[in-house]
Amino acid sequence: VQGRDMANPKLEAAMDLMRRMPPAQVQEDLGDVLALEPDLVEDLLSAVDQPLKEARCPVTNKDYLLCDYNRDGDSYRSPWSNKYDPPLDDGIVPSDELRTMELAANETFDNYREQYYEGGVSSAYFWDNEGGFACCIVIKKEEQDTLVLTADGAGHSGGTWNSIHVVEAKLNDKDQTATYTLVTTIMLSLNTAAEAVGSASLAGNMTRRDEKRGVKYTDHWSHISAIGSMIENIEMRMREQLEQVYFGKTQTVVDDIRSVSSLKAVRDKEAGQKNLIAELMKRQ
């Protein structure tokens, strides 16, 4: 985040500490750090990614997400009504032109979220930036205490997906081209519990960056289309990485250290394999 004073040794230590803490309890750990060093509130809140929280707009009765990009003090701006809750008379709001784009983006990504996630909440926030504009698209999908039936009996599972997409758009009005820089962070937490195998939890985050240069634009729909395409592509790539690398490696480790079969069954299987190998060796 621009303007963060990383020359502050206390801030550097706090950031280093937060990187080493379990992602699943980032909010609790951040609260403890801020209780020790209240002067770091603004810097840490803008620097540390936290799981997204939901709120309901009192004007439109629509849900929206809370993040650092729609916060002003202790108030949060609804993307649907452009009003702060709690009310704030001098809160920062986008220009009229950007507000029109913001409304269109919220409708667009609301449809995107429904098609890809089949539920959840999404929000889009825009603000004026030097040489163009910037925006943040946030999506949250949560499943809690879902009953799962397996061969070993019944169990429960749940999880939360948080994706935060921050885009900076630099505009060249002379030739009507734009450069879009996208930074995406995905925070994922999963938990499961079953009587036969016990309980397990998995949590982590991943950040990736993408950029597109020389993209032609004509109106705000051109920007939304270009940004939407970048977000769609990077989310697909990151989902594949999460599934193949993180989940795959975790599955391999768990398979090596934990078995749902009894020790006697495992030893009988190993003995059977040894006997089979010995018989095959005799025939050679």
Structural Rg: 24 Å
Note the overall shape.
elongated
Largest sheet strand order: 6-7-8-9-10
Q: Tell me the total number of β-strands.
A: 10
Look at the helices and sheets and give the structural class. alpha+beta
Strand count, sense and barrel status of the largest sheet are: 5 strands, antiparallel
Give an overview of the whole structure.
This protein is an alpha+beta fold and about 280 residues long. Helix content is about 40%, strand content about 35%. It has helices at about 10-20, 25-35, 40-45, 95-115, 220-255, 265-284, and strands at about 55, 65, 70, 75, 85, 120-130, 130-150, 155-170, 175-195, 200-215. A hairpin with a 6-residue loop joins strand 1 (about 55) and strand 2 (about 65). The longest helix has about 40 residues, at about 220-255. The protein is elongated. The N and C termini lie far apart (about 70 Å). The mean pLDDT is about 90.
